Amino acid sequence: MFATWFTYDDDRAPLWFAAELHLVSPSVYSGNLITVTGPRSTPCVRPRTVVESAAGTMSVTFADASHATMSYTVGA
Fold this sequence. Notes:
mainly beta, 6-stranded antiparallel sheet, single chain, about 80 residues
């Protein structure tokens, strides 16, 4: 599963996270959380200016097809 999460940091600046989550037990997906920094909006993104950094972990536990709980750690 691929997840993205938009939130705000302690200074109220926009912050994006992403995670590739893998099935670790029935109904539970877990993986590493990353953040990416680089130019925000340019006509041509130069790959060397984009930096991926480890940010923490994320898990999603499904109770059924319509309900899930997300848990995470950031910066720990």
